[in-house]
Amino acid sequence: MSVNFLIHSPARSAIPEKVLDPDTEKSSQAEQPSQAQPVRLSEEEMAKLSGEEAKKEQDEAALPEHIQKMVEKLEELREKIKEEQELLDKLKASDSYPEEMKAELVTQKLEYIMAMQNQVIELTKNIQDALKEAGITDPGILLKALA
């Protein structure tokens, strides 16, 4: 009968516990954390790592400066419309105003939002015209500028 002594021997780690540098008597192996902590990246870091940021910069570089400013203004207007729409929703849900006053405030807010939407339409037309004048016909650039 043969006995396998490896089964009964204690298990050893493949990674040595300490590797000492003979000159400095310090451990050259980096300390390993007892628990792996997940790495959290911000949206900006994710965009940078995915290459979205570089792609956006290339697309913007393809546009003349005056068109870039128009596109930025378009983005600002769209963001402002979203904010105003949220305020309108809160106003509609609010019970802190009398009904007549609330109706008037809602009407004013709707008119303001509609005016900004008209500005978006006009600015979009102006961007299209400016792109035509600049001779930019690449559909990808056109879509990105107007999206």
From TrEMBL:
Biased composition range(s): Basic and acidic residues: 18-28, 41-59
Biased composition (Low complexity): 29-38
Coiled-coil region list: 67-133
Keywords for the protein's UniProt record, in alphabetical order: Coiled coil
Highest taxon listed in the record's lineage: Bacteria
Chain residue ranges for the region called Disordered: 1-64
Protein name (database record): Uncharacterized protein
Naturally occurring in which organism (per UniProt): Pseudoalteromonas peptidolytica F12-50-A1
